[in-house]
């Protein structure tokens, strides 16, 4: 299988760098083909702006969505964007690997999402009407592919537990797993999270690699998070709220998991 | 009062640009002093990296936290970072204004947080031990100041409701309001959110300005979101989970609101 690993850490000798190297080796050893987008090493441009297409008229108002659509449709996207889209088309699975900074992904990775996820590629796909709100949340360009997060966090696991002060890790990651990965069609596997990264020794690192290796070995066997598809009957359209008979007493992020 | 407005949109003639201009005028008319950090206009460097301090030795391993601490303590931070920290010290209130892109803030603003929130400034403040886990979540450098989000979203309000497909807006914003604003000490006011931004005419824009103007007039009267302070007894330390007798049947983000 083809795997794209997008890696967002500035230091190759970091824990994240080591986990990236380990993952690539493990996947290649299993016979997969791996491409790595090492965003810091690539000097990835983090900021979505007027320079993201090659044919923009300077005298017009810049609309991030409409400019993205025009550039995507006319083949005038900046080359770094088109290259990452090609990698996504090529990949059978996507791994996003990053340290949790301020309870989300690093800016450089957020900027990868914003720029690569063009209108017509990752959103604005399919019919948009009051009866069909686009091919998204389970459908879309990237449907049929798998995705998984590998995340490191400085805090303790209990800080990210159901009653932990930072909020539950599944809720912190929901905007990424549901809003960024499931949205354009990926099947999303449970995340691999390493806590308390400042307390690391060789024994612990070795145990983490064993667990991560198992997850990578099982990439095509693991059951995805059962997010509810938008267009299979669970939601009223165009309100896009859960139908009254679906999990009637639930609300919040967890209600969107079957 | 002194107000810092951090604005993250690439087009001055956008809805966000107009709301920024309106806010500045309204606040100045009320006698406040306003500074605007217009991140796109400033060409803000979004990516946290080795160039964020002026005295780094190229032959050492880059540690984002420890390098940030060293540079903050020794006065060798990049000047753009130090300037924003000065603005935060000067401000009585902070407004972050941005379009919701992929269910979070734009990368350029995330990078403002990552770079300006230095170790020793926004985290790593106060005693860190097994009985006191830092001055944070209600305490810290920015305690006594107020903060508020002004956010625009393309989707409908129902899509962000309790059972809306995107998840409730309060939960989507929790990592920002609690994790980025409350963490270093801000009192966080309820957000001002504009939905369905593609359907805007003069009448609707005028109504939005009226509502936003009222919120700005009430900046010092509005009751902050009652997030639970970390060090006032609600949490077991160092586990940092809610004590069993605090909201015993609740979990998730909402449990951290009294």
UniProtKB/TrEMBL annotation, chains A, B:
Q: Do the record's keywords include Oxidoreductase?
A: yes
Q: Which InterPro entries match?
A: Flavodoxin_fold (IPR003680), Flavoprotein-like_sf (IPR029039), NAD(P)H_dehydrogenase_qn (IPR051545)
Entry GO CC: cytosol
Keyword line: Oxidoreductase
Q: Give the SUPFAM superfamilies listed for this entry.
A: Flavoproteins (SSF52218)
Origin superkingdom: Bacteria
Q: Carries keyword Cytoplasm?
A: no
- Gene3D superfamilies tied to this protein: 3.40.50.360
A Gene Ontology molecular function term for this protein is: NAD(P)H dehydrogenase (quinone) activity
Span of domain Flavodoxin-like fold: 1-203
Q: Name the family the entry cites.
A: Belongs to the NAD(P)H dehydrogenase (quinone) family.
Q: What is this protein called?
A: NAD(P)H dehydrogenase, quinone family
């Amino acid at each position: 299988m083809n795997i794209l690993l997008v890696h967002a850490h500035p230091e190759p000798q970091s824990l994240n760098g080591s986990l990236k190297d380990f993952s690539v080796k493990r996947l290649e050893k299993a016979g997969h083909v791996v491409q790595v987008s090492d965003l810091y090493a690539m000097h990835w441009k983090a900021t979505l702006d007027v320079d993201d297409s090659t044919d923009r008229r300077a005298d017009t108002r810049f609309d991030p969505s409409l400019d993205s659509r025009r550039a995507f449709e006319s083949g005038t996207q900046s080359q770094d964007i088109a290259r990452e889209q090609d990698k996504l088309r090529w990949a059978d699975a996507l791994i996003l690997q990053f340290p949790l900074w301020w309870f989300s992904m690093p800016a450089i990775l957020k900027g990868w999402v914003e720029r690569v996820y063009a209108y017509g590629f990752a959103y604005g796909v399919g019919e948009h009407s009051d009866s069909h709100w686009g091919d998204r949340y389970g459908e879309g360009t990237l449907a049929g592919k798998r995705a998984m997060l590998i995340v490191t966090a400085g805090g303790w696991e209990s800080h990210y537990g159901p009653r932990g002060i930072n909020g539950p890790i599944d809720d912190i990651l929901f905007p990424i797993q549901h809003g960024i990965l499931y949205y354009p069609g990926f099947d999303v596997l449970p995340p691999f999270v390493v806590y308390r990264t400042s307390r690391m020794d060789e024994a612990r690192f070795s145990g983490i690699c064993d667990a991560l290796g198992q997850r990578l070995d099982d990439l095509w066997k693991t059951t995805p998070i059962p997010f509810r598809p938008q267009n299979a009957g669970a939601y009223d359209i165009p309100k896009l709220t859960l139908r009254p008979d679906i999990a009637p007493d639930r609300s919040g992020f967890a209600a969107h998991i079957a």
